[in-house]
Amino acid sequence: MKQIIIPENERSTEPLDTEMVIYHPDMKRANEWILTEYQPPVRDFCIFVPCSKKKPYHESPSHKIFDRLIFGILEPEMVHIVVFGTCGITPRELDEQYPFMDYQFMMGKCNVSKIKRDFIRMESERLARYLERTKSNYKHRIAYCIGDFRTAMEKAVETTSVPVTIVPKRETIEKNIQPSKGFIYGSLNQRDYLQDLAEAISKPLGRSVIEVNEKEQMINDNDWYVL
What we know:
Domain DUF5591: 31-170
Keywords: tRNA processing
InterPro entries: DUF5591, Uracil-DNA_glycosylase-like_sf
Number of strands: 5
Number of helices: 6
CATH architecture: 3-Layer(aba) Sandwich
Strand order of the largest sheet: 3-2-1-4-5
Distance between the termini: 42 Å
Mean pLDDT: 92
Protein name: DUF5591 domain-containing protein
Structural class: alpha/beta
């Protein structure tokens, strides 16, 4: 029987669709459960990917694109997918659990400086704890992220010294900056960024890097991607 992180009769009545979602008691409680009670699997790879607008994450258009690339290179038993961002930290096999399935607010839409600062601080601390707790679980760690999510991951890596390959590469991001967009870095679903992810996965295996399909559909599905 699947364990329920927060039983229905113990859930807060506070809304999960406002910019205060990062402070929501159930989001905090669920993340604390993951960081203390959840038992992460042992895998060759851990790949961190950002949360998406559509829930559950594994059914979202963006995650389906990520999965086609990841599982085109790796066998499922080789990799653990971990989602992070507005949700905190969510091993993707738990993405149908409350509150990860139920919140609606997207950090990418938040322009409140204090909340953005708090998010980076809180998320970097959670990521650091997860990296420390799982440092013997994975041989390789890759984080696919841009924007504030990337900043949080970089801070976590700096804090722990646990190695994580963060992609896209900085030079790839700079090449794809779109000044006219609300989010200048564009979408992680674009070809150049996906190519960097493919390289990061293939390199530890000593394999040739696959060529990412240039006609991959651009999808505005990621939390931090705002037109």
